[in-house]
Specification:
With 590 residues, the chain is an alpha/beta fold. 19% of the residues lie in helices and 28% in strands. It has 9 helices and 34 strands. The strands form 8 sheets. An 8-stranded parallel sheet has the order 9-10-15-19-20-21-22-23.
């Protein structure tokens, strides 16, 4: 995707001992400490890879749409370390990265002139991981109609592949909640109505799965853990398996749906062993007929007091855990993910040890940026620190505008990614604006698409610093700009917020720009979050001992390429200048 960025040209200065002996660590000099190499961006080339993720030892195929400049080079970096650098004369080529597993890279196309100034023309992230759940980048499919030809599917998947989406949730692909497969393994229906009475075609479902697999993506089928239609009894669902709103089993717990839909959804006790056996059989049928890689299990959050057929009160979180274990026991080699609506029951779900990553649908009761952190912290603890967080979080929910508000989307993604999570937001042909995934009322502008590509390149290329462990710390950081206020996490309005970790021998500091923000809610519910002013040449002083290398990278600047900085060591502090901060800039002190 094309993106044009501002040219920042700074005078080249070598790091040296300063004449200013700064005894006061809160005082920051105002002189500029310049980058090692002056860099500008003219990102006029579109670059793609043939897959979203690669296994160790697998060859990566790159393609460029556009005309290469003379003397172009391609450079591959892990963080700021250059792995390889080669002349580039063709618009298609291959690269076999090192055999290291679970590693992110950034490839960039550049030229260098006689003044040692680089010009970047394209950048792209690369993920080399043998298992997608180590760094899940989750997307969705939500429509399976006759209009979804193979060509249309390929076009949709190209955008998802460009954003390195490595897993897909197949939403509302089912025939019925309690009987998801359209037909039986030996007699599949060519087409059938989904819950909203839309036409679904089995051939389209299969085509999506096949094309996803060809791109290295995994396919997860979606269904509730406890949903049944009004005709479920005829399909073998026992009336004694349901949840009831009274002790006398006179009224089933139910979700009422619009009158034109196929059925209301009646809720079954997920801990009932008869239901678990019945539904595990249905799941077996799904896997026999379709090449799904796993089951994305949904729930509905906290319910009012509910009872089983015999009048005993039901503990839903325990029921979720019991259901998850039953599904894993039946299909131990298939992947499992369960939604925790408002994080309800997450501790029980995650403590089963059966989940492949943490998935939370966030709502108004947890609508603050700090809630993203708190939910992830709690889930990390419940999973024993083993699993990665994915948020289902719907932007601009009130749908005031026909297109998404770019500042709201980017600030939310910046915070999620900096914290080490990812965002379920990208689908077959649209971005999510509500919990009903086929809803495409709010559109992505072409400008937003370009930004999103850059953000997902960044999430992929720097996944080892963003999502691969580390210890949270509080960084001692100050600036000479009196108009720029810096605070440590959590965010406050009118300030630049830092979130920091120590990863191996690196101090990683994220600068998140809330200076012009009008809310501390990630939802940007009415689409009113203003665009932040870019801060140019921000001189900072960071408490960091024995620094050997200092670099910055941002999805908002130079296509996410790492830029090594000159710096000055002042005792236990290091002084340097960040070229630009728009939404999010990452500082790495090695």
């Amino acid at each position: 995707m094309k993106m044009h960025l501002l040219l920042i040209t700074l005078p080249l200065m070598m790091a040296s001992c300063s004449d200013n002996n700064l005894d006061n660590p809160t005082t920051v000099p105002t002189d500029i400490i310049a980058p090692v190499v002056n860099t500008k961006a003219d990102l006029t080339l579109d670059i793609t890879t043939d897959k979203a993720v690669y296994k160790p030892g697998e060859t990566i195929r790159f393609s460029i749409d556009g005309t290469l400049p003379s003397s172009a080079h391609v450079r591959y970096r892990h963080g700021a370390k250059v792995i390889a650098d080669e002349p580039l004369s063709a618009t298609s080529w291959t690269w076999t990265p090192p055999h290291d597993d679970y590693t992110g890279y950034l490839a960039d196309i550049y030229t260098t002139d006689g003044s040692n100034q680089e010009t970047l023309y394209a950048t792209i992230g690369v993920d080399v991981s043998s298992d997608w759940v180590r760094f899940p980048r989750y997307g969705f499919i939500a429509s399976y109609g006759s209009d979804k030809t193979s060509e249309v599917i390929a076009s949709e998947m190209a955008m998802l592949n460009r954003c390195h989406i490595n897993g897909l949730q197949f939403y509302d692909w089912q025939y019925k909640q309690h009987w998801p497969l359209g037909g039986t393994p030996g007699a599949l229906l060519d087409s059938y109505k989904d819950i909203a009475n839309r036409d679904n075609y089995t051939s389209v479902v299969k085509d999506y799965i096949d094309q996803a697999h060809s791109l290295g993506m995994k396919a997860m089928f979606y269904d509730l853990c406890f949903g049944a239609f009004d005709d479920a009894k005829a399909d073998g669902v026992d009336d004694r398996w349901y949840m009831f709103t009274d002790r006398n089993h006179s009224e089933k717990d139910c979700i009422q749906l619009p009158s034109g839909w196929k059925s209301d959804i009646y809720l079954v006790d997920p801990s009932n062993t008869g239901w678990q056996t019945y539904f595990a059989d249905r799941v077996d049928d799904v896997y026999k007929a379709l090449q799904f890689d796993g089951f994305h299990i949904d729930q509905l959050g906290k319910r009012n007091t509910i009872y089983d057929y015999y009048g005993s009160q039901i503990n839903l979180p325990n029921g979720y855990a019991s259901f998850v274990k039953a599904m894993k026991g039946r299909q131990p080699d298939k992947r499992l993910v369960m939604n925790a609506v408002s994080n309800y029951g997450a501790d029980k779900i995650l403590s089963t040890g059966c989940m492949d990553f943490m998935y939370t649908e966030m709502w108004g009761s947890e609508d603050k940026f700090v809630d993203l952190y708190n939910v992830m912290k709690a889930n990390t603890r419940s999973s024993g620190g083993k699993l990665k967080q994915v948020y289902a979080a719907y932007m601009n929910y009130n749908h005031q505008q026909p297109k998404f508000n770019i500042p709201g989307v980017l600030l939310t993604d910046a915070v999620m990614f900096a914290l080490g999570a990812s965002h379920l937001e990208l689908g077959d042909d649209h971005m999510l604006c509500s919990e009903y995934f086929p809803n495409s009322d709010v559109k992505m502008s072409e400008d937003l698409k370009k930004h999103i590509v850059s953000y997902y390149d960044f999430l992929t290329a720097y996944q080892n610093l963003l999502r691969d462990g580390g210890t949270e710390i509080v960084s001692d950081l100050a600036t000479s700009k009196t108009e720029v206020r810096i605070n440590s996490w959590p965010p406050v309005l009118g300030a630049v917020t830092t979130f920091s970790k120590r990863v191996d021998n690196k101090q990683v500091v994220h600068l998140l720009n809330f200076r012009q923000a009008n809310s501390l809610s990630w939802r940007d519910i009415d689409g009113t979050m203003p665009e932040p002013d870019a801060i140019e040449n921000l001189t900072l002083r960071l408490h960091a001992k024995n620094v050997k290398k200092l670099w910055v990278a941002s999805p908002d600047y130079l296509g996410g390429a790492a830029q090594e900085l000159q710096y000055r060591q002042e005792g236990d502090y290091v002084v340097f200048t960040v070229p630009q901060l728009k939404y999010w800039t990452m500082i790495v002190a090695e």
